[in-house]
Design brief:
The complex is a heterodimer of chains A (about 240) and B (about 270). Chain A has about 240 residues and is of the alpha/beta class. In chain A, about 15% of the residues lie in helices and about 25% in strands. In chain A, strands 4-6-8-10-13-14 form a six-stranded mixed sheet, with no helix packed on it. In chain A, strands 5-7-9-11-12 form a five-stranded mixed sheet, with no helix packed on it. A three-stranded parallel sheet of chain A has the order 1-2-3, covered by helices on one side. Chain B is of the alpha/beta class and about 270 residues long. The chains are: A alpha/beta (about 240), B alpha/beta (about 270). The interface between A and B is medium-sized, with 14 and 13 residues.
Chain lengths: ~240, ~270
């Protein structure tokens, strides 16, 4: 079969961004006044920056939420998502509900804040590099995610578990679940494992499932990398 | 020092209730003061396995909601005076258990018993997470087949995340108990073998309970297999598992039924 006739797979890319989280506190009018004062001190701070509205401290009605978002847009703050509210309480046209956010480190925020002052027209913040070492097996249903480098697992990754890294993925055990390297688009990222029984391997959005991994590679130590648009897998033993 | 042990699995039908009754009976036989608590509200079974279904007046829900005192709901076993049952309700559902109520009842049980064995419902929803919430140790019941092992793996992840101990940053002791093991089928590759299961779950093994008609016969009689036929392979396996749970170091073997000459010559009857 000619290689051109192969269906080209759709690429799905995971991407994480740093967003500011705004958590209004009642009374909202006072909070908006405080916000105005903050904006006056550093104009342009929020321009072009994604922000998330955290409604965990409030109990606003649907129309109040819509009004609040209008007020924020009037201050050039674009809300990309809402936290701490039930999806049912949001009407159509409002940003989607986000879950499982985590606070960014002080360093990250400070750097972004610094950049905001240096060049208000933002450019993507550089990822901090650092690998994440996991000493326990990754259990079914768990996801290990590192948006700032490699993930190293000293143990096995179970069926239905997922390891996602912006850098490379190293599994010193059996890889039965999914491994996604270069999740933010790094085509140089690789996947290494001591024993391949994976459900899915993906690098920078290119993926291969069980069905298109050669059976002679299964149960062996392997590495996977990208060569152009093709994911190559080779045994290490 | 009282020890709360959750018997859990994720998957249904693997033998949680039989195991709770088996371990509870074996611990009680060695003189420990034991209570088995049925967390499977709405689908209670532990009372049947222990033959106490006609003695249930008040249940766990009644105690959690303060309608009855703990003393009124506890059922003492007729054969073993150190074994007690806190039955579940058959008519209510799991939402009737409140976090605070369960915490209070477990606290009260801790002051009265050496061992509190919690029989978890199947699944990973609220009933199962409530049953594991206060555990100091967990027995993860697994059949030697892929779906059961995968579900057990999921439950182990939850034990490391959703228990009180885990939230305090402490470890909870986790043990694998393999049930319904058939050495002949494992040898033929129709079942996972023990080393596969342990390699996948990477936890210590508490025991191997062989597939046995004795288990079914005993639960139909309402007598735990440990009492009904103590010489049977399943009973011996539960007795050994209980000793390991108490901290004894014993080599794990697959106890087998003593076979007659006919079986030796012609192999086992087809199931």
């Amino acid at each position: 079969m000619e290689s051109e006739t192969r269906p080209r797979p759709v690429r799905f890319r995971g991407r994480s961004y740093l967003a500011f989280s705004l958590a209004p506190e009642p009374p909202i009018a006072d909070w908006l006044a405080d916000l105005d004062a903050a904006i006056d001190r550093s104009s342009g701070f929020f321009v072009g920056r994604p922000a998330v509205l955290d409604l965990g401290n409030t109990a606003l009605s649907q129309s109040a939420i819509a009004l609040l978002i209008q007020e924020l847009e009037a201050r050039h703050i674009r809300i990309m998502g809402i936290e701490g509210a039930e999806a049912a309480n949001l009407g159509p046209g409002l940003p989607p509900v986000l879950v499982s956010g985590r606070p960014a480190s002080g360093g990250e925020l400070a750097r972004v804040a610094q950049e905001a002052q240096d060049k208000p027209a933002s450019k993507p913040a550089e990822q901090q590099s650092g690998s994440l070492v996991v000493d326990t097996p990754v259990r079914s249903g768990q996801t290990i995610y590192n948006s700032a480098g490699d993930v190293v697992v000293v143990g096995s990754v179970a069926w239905g578990a997922e390891v996602v890294a912006s850098g490379s993925v190293h599994i010193y055990g059996v890889l039965r679940g999914r491994a996604l390297a270069g999740a933010t688009g790094n085509t140089k990222a690789r996947i290494f494992c001591r024993k391949l029984e994976a459900e899915l391997l993906a690098i920078a959005g290119y993926y291969r499932t069980v069905d298109d991994i050669e059976s002679n590679l299964r149960n062996r130590p392997v590495q996977a990398w990208l060569d152009g648009n093709a994911m190559l897998i080779a045994a290490l033993d | 020092m009282a020890k709360v042990v959750v018997v859990t699995s994720g998957k249904g039908g693997v033998g949680k209730t039989t195991t709770t009754a088996g371990l509870g009976t074996a611990l009680a036989q060695s003189g420990q003061n034991v209570v088995v608590v049925d967390f499977d509200v709405g689908l209670r079974n532990l009372d049947l396995v222990l033959g106490a279904e006609r003695r249930v007046v008040f249940d766990f829900i009644n105690v959690v909601q303060g309608v009855a005192k703990l003393q009124q709901a506890l059922i003492r076993d007729k054969r073993l005076e150190t074994l007690h049952l806190l039955p579940a309700s058959q008519t209510r559902d799991k939402d009737a258990l409140t976090d605070d109520g369960v915490a209070r009842v477990i606290g009260e049980l801790r002051s009265r018993f050496d061992w509190i064995l919690c029989d978890s419902p199947a699944g990973i929803e609220r009933g199962a997470t409530l049953a594991m919430r206060h555990a100091d140790a967990a027995v993860i019941v697994t059949n030697p087949e892929v779906s059961s092992v995968r579900d057990s793996d999921r439950i182990i992840g939850l034990l490391d995340a959703k228990t009180e101990r885990a939230e305090r940053g402490e470890k909870i002791d986790k043990h694998i108990l393999i049930t319904r093991f058939d050495p002949n089928r494992a040898a033929r590759g129709e079942m996972l073998n023990i080393s596969d299961v342990l390699e996948i779950l990477s936890l210590p093994l508490l025991g191997i309970i062989p597939e046995s008609e004795e288990v079914l016969r005993a639960s139909n009689l309402g007598t735990p297999v440990v009492l009904n036929n103590p010489a049977s392979a399943a009973a011996r396996a539960y007795l050994e598992a209980a000793r390991r749970l108490m901290g004894e170091e014993l080599n794990v073997t697959v106890p087998s039924e003593k076979r007659g000459l006919f079986n030796k010559l012609f192999g086992r009857r087809a199931a």
